[in-house]
Structure formats: C-alpha cells, structure tokens
Design a protein that fits this description.
There is one protein chain. The protein is an alpha/beta fold. Helix content is 33%, strand content 15%. It folds into two domains: 5-54, no CATH class; 66-227 and 279-302, Collagenase (Catalytic Domain) (3-Layer(aba) Sandwich). A five-stranded mixed β-sheet has the order 4-3-5-7-6. It has a two-stranded antiparallel ribbon with strand order 1-2. Helix 1 (27-35) packs across helix 3 (46-54) and helix 4 (66-85) crosses helix 10. The longest helix has 20 residues, at 66-85. The structure holds calcium ion (2 copies) and zinc ion. Residues 240-241, 243, 246, 248 line the site of one calcium ion.
Length: 303
C-alpha cells in the first residue's frame, strides 16, 4: 500500500512552491531531515539515506505528474519529427562541454581541488561511456559568496555565472541539506539561464560525505539533465519512468540491498541503476532503454 504525500517542492529545484505528488516517501523522513541536517548527510537509517539523495523534500528535480510526462513525450515526439523533416539528425556520439562553478563561502571554505574536479569529470566519462556521451572540462571558476555557497539566491547566481548554450553542462558546487538538484532538457527553452546541475561539493571523489563521495551524485543529476526520470518516477505504475527496461519501483532504494522488490509489476527494483537513490558504491549502470531516451532528449532539446 502506498501513501502518496503532497510535498512542497523545494527552492532546491528552483521552481518555488509547486505542489507535487510523491508516491511512497515516508512522512517522518521529511521532518527528520529538516530538523537534523547532519543526519541527512550521514544517514543512519534507510529512510534517511533515501532522503539524503533526494534532499529535504524528497526530490532533486521539478515534480512531474503522469499527465505532464505524457505531454512532454508528445512534445518531444513533435520536435524530433520537425527536426527530422528539416534534415537534422541526432549525433550518435557527442561531447558535452563542462563548466564547473565552485561556490565557496566568504572565507573561501567549501572548496575542492582541481584534482577532485578532474576526477569528477573522469567519473562522468566512465559512467556515460556506454551511452556514447563524453564530457570535456572547459573551465573552473571559483567564487566567494556565503549565500551562493548555501544555494541561496540560487536562480540569481546561476543566471549570473552560467556559461555556454543548450549543450553545455554547468555544474555548481554548493553546500545544502541535499546532495544534488537538476534541471530537465525540456525546460531549457523556458529556463535556460539556470540550466544545469547543482551538487554538494563534498560529493565529489574524495569528499567527506559517507556513502556519497564517489562522484555519483553528479552522474545521477546529469541523468536528469539528459532527460531521465528516477526509476521510481510515478511509483509502481506501468508508465513509470517511460523506459521499458527499468522495472517500476514503488519507492526509492536506500543503501545497497542485495535485492528489493517494492512493486508487484515484473522485475526486481533496479537498485544498481544510476537513477535510483542508492549509495554511490551501489550504482553500476544505465540501461539500453535509458541510453535511447537520452539520445532522443539530446536530439530534441540540446543538439
Ligand atoms: Ca521503467
Ligand atoms: Ca517488481
Ligand atoms: Zn534524482
């Protein structure tokens, strides 16, 4: 039995106070995470761990209803048909220019080393190699601003510092109660000024966040940036994440269970998939269906 909750969408997602439904997230998690920030980042229970990946509101991207999912799918189909008619074809392999913005506090705290940034980009290259996507670090800029470091004035600082066009991945390193947040490709036309991902600076390789310091938060958020939903999108439904080869999940995975089956629909939960909420060490792959979806989304909105 699921208990859908109406959660407040965080400023974290950059959209203000939109209401959304999230199936299966346990109510107490919100309070615990909100009240004990440290517990969120160093989770003691499975519920806290799942919340840590998703942040105080449980989600790391703008909330999407099933109706919106279908509308986006129609829009994507139309865009691709239009581009095909115009002779534009999707690239099989692509290189994404990467701009890293290190938002340090006023005193220069919250920094990462250049080596950590190279390692982070290497993790992205390794994990997306199977999908034919590579990442090329163009620049790293460092800022000293405590408000920005804490992801306050988020839309403002992102608008002021963002580089490149629709193909460019901007990564802002911040310190918040959540691990990461992302924008979707279909929102680029409307909100291109803030397009990109935000990740906790200590989630980079060698960072201090227990279970979440192998750079996989950026891999997960980049998945959203390329148009993927969570594998638990919509909960235990046939629509799910609109990817056929990711078994539907009722709830996010926390930690790294040997196996899990939260949904009566076929297949065990894809606990090792990058788009679940498992630990960094638990992640191992995207599916072919996710790869195909990223190709379509790239062609429709970023190519
Ligand atoms: Ca699926
Ligand atoms: Ca199942
Ligand atoms: Zn996510």
């Amino acid at each position: 039995m699921r208990f859908p909750l109406v959660l407040r969408l965080a400023a974290a997602a950059g959209l203000g106070a939109t209401a959304l439904n999230v199936g299966g997230l346990a109510a107490p998690a919100q309070g615990r995470v909100a009240d004990h920030v440290t517990a969120c980042l160093v989770p003691r229970t499975n519920v806290e761990a799942a919340a840590a990946r998703g942040g105080a509101t449980g989600l790391d991207h703008p909330g999407i209803s099933a109706a919106e999912q279908l509308a986006i799918a129609r829009r994507t189909h139309l865009r691709l048909a239009t581009k095909a008619a115009g002779g534009r074809r999707a690239l099989v392999a692509r290189t994404v220019p990467v701009y890293v913005h290190v938002m340090r506090d006023d005193a220069g705290g919250g920094d990462v080393t250049d080596r950590q940034i190279y390692q982070q980009v290497a993790v992205l290259n390794k994990d997306y190699a199977g999908a034919g996507i590579s990442f090329d670090l163009i620049s790293t800029r460092r800022y000293n601003n405590t408000a920005w470091h804490q992801d306050d004035q988020s839309k403002r600082y992102r608008s002021l510092t963002r580089k490149g066009g629709a193909r460019a991945l901007n990564i802002w390193l911040v310190e918040a109660v959540w691990l990461g947040a992302a924008t979707f490709p279909w929102d680029y036309a409307r909100e291109g000024a803030v397009d990109g991902i935000r990740v906790h600076f200590d989630s980079l390789p060698g960072g201090s966040l227990l279970h979440f310091n192998k750079g996989k938060t950026a891999v997960h958020e980049t998945g959203h940036w390329l148009g993927l939903f969570h594998t638990f999108q919509g909960g235990c439904t046939r629509l799910n994440d609109q990817v056929d080869d990711t078994p539907a999940q009722a709830t996010p995975t926390a930690g790294c269970p040997v196996s899990r089956d939260s949904c009566r629909l076929p297949g065990d939960d894809p606990v090792h998939n990058y788009m679940d909420y498992s630990w960094d060490s638990c992640y191992s792959h995207f599916t072919r269906g996710q790869d195909a979806r990223m190709d379509r989304m790239w062609a429709a909105y970023r190519a």
